[in-house]
Hints:
Elements: E1 3-7, E2 10-13, H1 14-24, E3 26-27, H2 29-40, H3 47-62, E4 66-67
Parallel strand pairs: 3-4
Antiparallel strand pairs: 1-2
Amino acid sequence: MMIVNVAPFTAVSIGQVIKRILGTGKITHDDEVFFQKAMRSETSLNNEEMEQVTKVYRRLQMGLIKVVD
């Protein structure tokens, strides 16, 4: 499971972020920054995490997830 520090003293898993995005149907700029940090991390995503990221991407393409600030 990939954990990314998003602010001082805050660590969030990619699964938690994806669960919130899929649950709310919204993605924020902070989420984008989170994904960028995750992609630059030396820790690789596992298969389940990759499937979740793909699910978010597909839903964005279909317009099922709104981009908000």
